[in-house]
UniProtKB/TrEMBL annotation:
<protein>
    <submittedName>
        <fullName>(wild Malaysian banana) hypothetical protein</fullName>
    </submittedName>
</protein>
<dbReference type="GO" id="GO:0018279">
    <property type="term" value="P:protein N-linked glycosylation via asparagine"/>
</dbReference>
<keyword id="KW-1133">Transmembrane helix</keyword>
<keyword id="KW-0812">Transmembrane</keyword>
<dbReference type="InterPro" id="IPR055459">
    <property type="entry name" value="OST48_MD"/>
</dbReference>
<feature type="domain" description="OST48 middle">
    <location>
        <begin position="3"/>
        <end position="52"/>
    </location>
</feature>
<dbReference type="Pfam" id="PF23358">
    <property type="entry name" value="OST48_MD"/>
</dbReference>
<feature type="transmembrane region" description="Helical">
    <location>
        <begin position="28"/>
        <end position="50"/>
    </location>
</feature>
<dbReference type="InterPro" id="IPR005013">
    <property type="entry name" value="DDOST_48_kDa_subunit"/>
</dbReference>
<keyword id="KW-0472">Membrane</keyword>
<dbReference type="GO" id="GO:0005789">
    <property type="term" value="C:endoplasmic reticulum membrane"/>
</dbReference>
């Protein structure tokens, strides 16, 4: 019986808070959903307040 083992040591260092991109491109749908929810909330609020 033969045992083969191999190890690779890879240093893992988390990014600092200023090393990330300012806007992550894969999050654009979430940005759009957030802003459309805010706009919708304000439109419904204005409609409700001035409908009387």
């Amino acid at each position: 019986m033969c045992v083969i083992s191999s190890e690779s040591v890879i240093p893992v260092q988390p990014f600092r808070h200023n090393e990330y991109e300012r806007f992550i491109t894969t999050a654009f749908p979430y940005y759009g959903a957030s802003f459309s929810t805010m706009v919708g909330f304000f439109v419904v609020t204005i409609f409700y307040l001035y409908n009387k």
